[in-house]
Design a protein that fits this description.
about 575 residues; alpha+beta; 6-stranded antiparallel sheet; 17 strands
């Protein structure tokens, strides 16, 4: 339940606090005082669209704050806690700020949240019924939605099954169309992939092969220089074939070691150096032997060099052709192998199109049969609910001074040769089902039933719409119901009945009504008035809770346009006493 709402800087409202209570709360005020801003504030508080144009001129931003008393174990509290918010003694604080620049911020339980989360919570907290809803209810799609909303679970279950089958069928048919209409393109794609795989398979690139080939090409291309260099190094270490008179590196190291060994007996510290020279001689000899072995393997082979160069060119061509990101040749070879693996899987998938088409076609037929079955169930549920809905609305009309009026709810289907088979007919279908729903009004006995938007005068239409709103409001599983001037065009005895019906709703829910009818305001448990002040420069509004005397003055104003009229006050007193008496006896 909404316990309090504070509005600042919104439209003509400068700063107003609405202390709300259980039961029926009426909000009234002169034209232009800002009654509509109360509903606008409620919309903002529960995730509605932020309109920077509604920010009061001269202020930087508008804000709306609310105190919600919630069930600590209920879904609203759970969702708030999941978002990081906190409860304060079962009270949840909600806030929304709209800057004049257009930026909007939302807070829930002291934590910043997306505005969409507030809209999500609104489904469990508040239902707003306004003149826009009346306009929408004239449209066939919204009339169907109203019937579905009234039917609740009776329609919700088959509708959920129908929509699940419909969505799957829609996606499946799209895939089938793609497979069949693009068969030629897919065949061409498979042929191109097979050609590429044949090239890669013929070349048979191996991981690491490009790097090894690069080394071999460099070795073959510089064979003479490599042989000459290693021979010179070998001769420097071990001496050449013609001899070097012991001037090679191994001979020199051996001479140094021999010289130290001859004098080492004189100083033991030289023993370590002698050992190191002996190791150095062995190492130089090993290096020399390795150089001799390497030089023996270096051969000038132009034929092999040509083979290596051709192989490298072939691998480079494959890299450039099939690697997604060729880069260096050594990296690209791995990319070619990866492409071949992916392409082989793609070819397998493309080659399986025929099997896939057969499978999808079989599933499509199953879904069409399932859709026909659930559409029939959904249509039957709507037809049954239509009778109850029509009776409920007709009863409300009787209570609204239209005793002989009857509302009928027609549920029909449109023939379509390419449609869905339901009840032996081929009918048009969409995601909502196969039904066309239309509300018809029979204003008095003997009159023909006509479509709602065509068969009622302005006052009758307002009462029909209000009857529908009251019936639908009774199905809303929310603690707070808001009615924004849904009684427009109603007066006299019908206005009294409107107040009586709203008071009846308030016995099981918190009801907030923005109204201009004194007959409705007289039934209120709490009466708030939006008052406007004008200092000649700026107009501002505030909200005041009325006591008994204040209610009489406001009812007098609503009745006669003036608060000091004795006749109007007497009428207001009588109206208030009558309404309170009816409430006490009901």
């Amino acid at each position: 339940m909404l316990e309090e709402m504070r509005i600042r800087g919104l439209g003509v409202i400068d700063d107003a606090v609405l202390e709300l209570a259980p039961g029926l709360t009426v909000v009234s005020g002169e034209t232009g005082a800002g009654k509509t801003m109360v509903v606008t504030g409620l919309g903002l508080l529960f995730g509605g669209r932020a309109d920077p144009g509604a920010v009061r001129p001269g202020v930087g931003s508008a804000s709306v704050e609310g105190r919600l008393r919630v069930d600590p174990g209920g879904p609203v509290a759970a969702r708030a806690l999941d978002a990081g918010g906190e409860l304060d003694d079962d009270v949840l604080l909600v806030a929304r700020t709209v800057a004049a620049s257009g930026r909007s911020r939302a807070h829930l339980g002291g934590r910043g949240v997306p505005a969409g989360l507030l809209a999500e919570l609104a489904d469990s907290c508040v239902a707003v019924h306004g003149q826009l809803d009346q306009t929408r209810l004239r449209q066939p799609a919204h009339q169907r939605d109203a019937l579905d909303r009234y039917a609740d679970a009776d329609v919700a279950a088959p509708q959920a099954a129908y929509r699940a089958a419909y969505d799957e069928l829609r996606d499946l048919v799209a895939e089938l169309d793609d497979l069949t209409t693009r068969a030629r393109e897919r065949t061409q794609e498979a042929d191109l992939l097979r050609f590429g795989l044949t090239e890669v398979e013929a070349a048979d690139p191996q991981p690491g092969e490009p790097a090894a080939l690069a080394v071999e090409e460099a070795r073959l291309g510089h064979a003479d220089a490599l042989r000459a260099g290693t021979t010179t190094a070998h001769d420097a270490l071990l001496g050449g074939a013609d001899g070097t008179d012991g001037r090679d590196a191994v001979g020199l190291v051996s001479s140094a070691r021999t010289a130290l060994e001859q004098v080492g007996v004189q100083d033991p510290q030289l023993d370590e150096i002698v050992d190191r020279l002996r190791e150095l001689a062995y190492l130089l000899a090993d290096v020399g032997a390795d150089l001799a072995s390497y030089a023996a393997t270096v051969e000038t082979d132009p034929a092999r060099l040509a083979v290596v160069q051709d192989r490298r060119a072939e691998l480079t061509r494959l890299v450039r052709k099939y690697a997604d990101e060729p880069g260096a040749e050594t990296e690209g070879a791995a990319a070619v192998l990866a492409w071949a693996q992916q392409s082989a899987a793609r070819v397998t998938l493309l080659e399986g199109d025929d099997d896939r088409i057969v499978t999808l076609t079989a599933r499509r037929d199953e879904l069409v049969a399932e859709l026909s079955r659930t559409a029939s169930l959904l249509s039957a549920a709507r037809t049954a609910a239509a009778e109850r809905f029509a009776a409920a609305v007709s009863d409300e009309l009787s209570a609204l001074a239209m005793a002989n009026a009857q509302v009928e709810v027609g549920v029909s289907q449109s023939d379509d040769p390419a449609g869905l088979e339901v009840g032996g007919r081929r009918v048009a279908y969409a995601r909502h089902g196969v039904d066309d729903v239309e509300l018809l009004l029979r204003p008095h006995a003997g009159a023909p039933a006509r479509p709602l938007q065509k068969g009622a005068s302005g006052g009758e239409l307002s009462r029909v719409m209000l009857a529908i709103e009251v019936v639908l409001a009774g199905t809303d599983p929310v603690p707070t119901l808001v009615f924004d001037e849904v009684d427009a065009g109603v007066g006299g005895r019908a206005a009294v009945e409107v107040g009586r019906r709203l008071a009846a709703l308030a016995r099981t829910a918190q009801v907030i009504v923005v109204t201009h009818l004194p007959q409705v305001a007289a039934f209120a448990d709490q009466h708030l008035v939006v008052r406007k002040s004008d200092d000649g420069v700026v107009t501002s509004s505030g909200v005041v809770a009325l006591d008994e005397a204040g209610r009489l003055r406001e009812l007098s104003r609503m009745l006669a346009g003036q608060e000091e009229s004795a006749t109007a006050e007497a009428h207001a007193r009588e109206l208030l006493a009558s309404a309170q008496g009816e409430r006490a006896s009901s």
